[in-house]
Amino acid sequence: MKLLTRHYKRLRVSRLKVALIVIFLNIIFVPQYKKYESDGDNIFSVYLNDEYVGTVGKQTDVEELLIETRREIASSSDTLMFVQASLKVEGKSVVFGEIDSDKEVLDNMVTVLSKSMHEGLKPAYAMKIGNFTVNLASLDDVKSVLQAAVAKYDANNEYEVTLKKDPNRELNALTAEIVAKETMIEEDFSFSEASVAGIEKLFKEDEEKLEEADGKSFDDYQYGLLNISFDNSIEIVDAYLEDSQLTDVNTAIEEITAAEDKNTIYEVQAGDTLSGISYATDIPIEKLVAMNEAIEDENSTIRIGQEIIITNPEPPLSVDRVEQEYLEEDYDADIIYVDNDEWYTTDKVTIQQPSAGHRKIVAQISYYNDKEVSREVIKEEVMLEAVPKIVERGTKIPPTYIKPISGGRMSSTFGRRNAPTKGASSNHQGIDWAIAKGSAVYASSGGKVTKAGWASGYGYVVYIQHPDGKETRYGHLSKVLVSVGQTVRQGDKIALSGNSGVSTGPHLHFEIRVNGVAVNPLKYIN
Question: What digits encode the pLDDT tens for the residues 44-53?
Answer without folding.
Answer: 899 998 899 9
